[in-house]
Specification:
- It contains 16 helices and 14 strands.
- It is α/β, with parallel strands linked by helices.
- Strand 9 and strand 10 form a beta hairpin.
- The radius of gyration is 29 Å and the shape is elongated.
- The chain starts with 14 loop residues before the first helix and ends with a helix.
- The structure holds arginine (ARG).
- The site of arginine has 10 residues, from helix 5, strand 6 and strand 7.
- Arginine binds next to helix 5, strand 6 and strand 7.
Length: 449
């Protein structure tokens, strides 16, 4: 049997994949592909395209990582209705919080010092589940609906390669010949893929427990102020309550474990803070970031819980980490964020950086008090049983126990290298040289006279 490829929709034969699928078809059984499926138009067209163009049996996997669109039963059914041989809706929220967000918090993970990496953190988790399903079905292929211009394709594929290099990856959106949304809808309608009647938002949205990313539409002009309609998790600060609200976040070994004194699973703390801090307009970001594929892109984010938790965690670290570790960790944090942004979740470097961060968290236990008010969240208090803050050493009052006399000798030795440098090469040496030159000139003038 020959595999049929529709030339109108297939830019070029997807060589190996088509061959393998055709071979399997000859043997009377189809190759299986596991598709990362969201239920939206792109991945629905992918699901059909993989059947029509590549003759695959498709297994759909939809992960619940806390996104807004969470009628998972309906999404699961939609895949089956379109001919998927199996369809899974997996609740990954706890795993996401416990195995991914805890590490992100330990590393205070902020790409380019701002973006809490919400999309970058969810892709390796989804990839892990795709690989597991592929193994359980004996599938040789995994597919995703990412475009060729974004970071997410890289994150999916590097994660899959790290977990099972033998799996082949199919990226229909990168391969097909559908150049516009209109063409995609036309293809969908011609192939019985349901198209939602609702008007599509001009923005590309990705969301999960760690926040919401908004790009495209009017945002493509970096000078254009974000239109009010892009924000859904956060209130505009001008409409936020006139009274500040305080929250106390308890941490144990770097992991949030209570809110206002009430013990809570981390995942629930994240959910609660998204609502609480979002109501005060906390966590809006508007930035131009450097994508992995070399493009600068303007992105807006809403990250209420991530903003509060990272700020609180950093504040607790200032009490509980010694200065050298705290300073060294700043560089590690940047490397961690860059590695994760670049799709290297499952990589030796990123895992080694995790080990470093984990080693720093043993004493990061305590409570941080945060004030939420009109778009800002500020740390107003922090305490820890392991605090390295010593009142007697810090106080300028009567309790002062610092040895002022020891400072003189300390500064003499601390300053010795610059004192030496100054004398030999720096300002003191220059001064000496100019004095010598001046004396030489004077001598010459006297001799001449
Ligand atoms: N720029 C962000 C990142 O690379 C967000 C990507 C959002 N993805 C999306 N499909 N809208 O992590």
């Amino acid at each position: 049997m020959e595999i049929t490829m529709n030339e109108a929709t297939t830019a070029h034969a997807i060589g190996g994949q088509a061959c393998m699928a055709a071979k399997a078809a000859e043997c009377g059984m189809k190759e299986k592909v596991v598709l990362a499926y969201s239920g939206g138009l792109d991945t629905s067209v992918c699901l059909k395209w993989l059947q029509v163009e590549c003759d695959f049996d498709v297994i759909a996997v939809c992960g619940n990582v806390g996104q807004d669109e969470n009628d998972l039963a309906a999404i699961r059914q939609k895949a089956l209705d379109m001919g998927a041989i199996a369809s899974f809706a997996v609740d990954m929220r706890e795993e996401y919080a416990n195995d991914f967000l805890t590490l992100a918090l330990a590393a205070n993970g902020l790409y380019e010092n701002s973006y809490p990496l919400l999309s970058a953190l969810s892709r390796p988790l989804l990839a892990k589940h795709l690989v597991e399903v592929a193994h359980s079905f004996g599938a040789h292929y995994v597919a995703h609906g990412c475009t060729g211009k974004g970071n997410d394709q890289v994150r999916f594929e590097t994660s899959i390669k790290a977990l099972d290099p033998m799996l082949e990856i199919v990226a229909p959106v990168r391969e097909w010949n559908l150049h516009s949304r209109e063409e995609e809808i036309e293809w969908a309608q011609a192939h019985g893929v349901p198209v939602a009647a609702t008007k599509k938002s001009p923005y590309s949205i990705d969301d999960n427990l760690w926040g919401r990313a908004i790009e495209c539409g009017a945002l493509e002009d970096p000078w254009c102020e974000p239109p009010a309609d892009i924000w859904t998790l956060t209130a505009d600060s001008t409409c936020a309550p006139d009274e500040p609200e305080y929250v106390e976040i308890g941490f144990e070994q770097g992991v949030p474990c209570s809110l206002d004194g009430v013990k809570m699973p981390f995942v629930d703390i994240v959910k609660t803070l998204n609502v609480k801090a979002g109501a005060h307009g906390v966590g809006r970001l508007d930035m131009v970031e450097n994508r992995l594929v070399g493009v600068k892109s303007r992105e807006c984010y809403e990250v209420p819980a991530a903003k509060v938790l990272i700020d609180a965690h950093k504040a607790l670290e200032t009490l509980c980490l010694d200065g050298d570790t705290q300073h060294y960790k700043l560089g590690i944090e940047q490397q961690w964020a860059t590695a994760v942004y670049q799709g290297m979740w499952f990589s030796p470097l990123k895992m080694a950086l995790d080990s470093f961060c984990a080693a720093t968290q043993h004493f990061v236990t305590g409570v941080v008090k945060m004030r939420l008010y009109k778009g800002s969240c500020s740390v107003t208090g922090r305490k820890s049983p392991y605090s390295l803050y010593d009142f007697g050493l810090a106080s300028y009052g009567a309790a002062d126990a610092f040895n002022h006399g020891a400072a003189k000798g300390f500064i003499e030795l601390h300053g010795l290298p610059v004192t030496t440098w100054s004398a030999k090469q720096g300002p003191a040496a220059e001064e000496l040289a100019s004095q010598a030159a001046f004396a030489g000139e004077k001598k010459a003038v006297i001799c001449a006279a």
